[in-house]
Amino acid sequence: MLGKIGYGTVSEALAFKLPFVFVRRDYFNEEPFLRNMLECYQCGVEMIRRDLLTGHWKPYLERAISLKPCYEGGINGGEVAAHILQEIACGKNYASDKFSGARRFRETNVLGYQLQRVPGRALSRCTDDFEILHGDLQGLPDTRSFSKRLAELDTAHDSQ
Is 95 helix (H, G, I), strand (E, B) or coil? Predict the structure, then answer.
């Protein structure tokens, strides 16, 4: 398979045990977790966007052919990906020498929020556990609620 990384393409590649040559997606916060899944199940090869656009595909395709995808889990795509992300966010399946899954999940989502907001309104407003560096949460109750839930995940993990 050849495409951009996303829930649909990753779940299809895993379900059908197809090597997946992919390019990154800008501002897609869950990408590191999906890339980790592809690596774990020996299913993905990342292609540099410039090489995609210039037709320099051969080394990536050769690498993909050598892969031996080994995913044996469920094939209900989005549900499987969501379950794995939830386990990582709750602190399951993480290396003890790295930050917890909950902390990494929280930080990638907060970073994504900062990157997607229009810069220029440098407020230093704090919403419970997060400092909003650009923009504000006015009129965005879903974002405030999501931030609180991310903080709760980290707190729940720390108490275990």
Answer: coil
pTM: 0.50
* Residue-wise pLDDT tens digits, 4-52: 999 889 988 998 999 999 999 888 888 988 999 999 999 999 999 999 9
99 within 8 A of 157, measured Cβ to Cβ: no
CB atoms within 10 A of CB 53: 9
- The burial class, CB within 10 Å (0-12 / 13-18 / 19+), for 138 is exposed
How many C-beta atoms lie closer than 10 Å to residue 110's C-beta?
Answer: 20
In the chain, domain spans: 2-89, 101-159
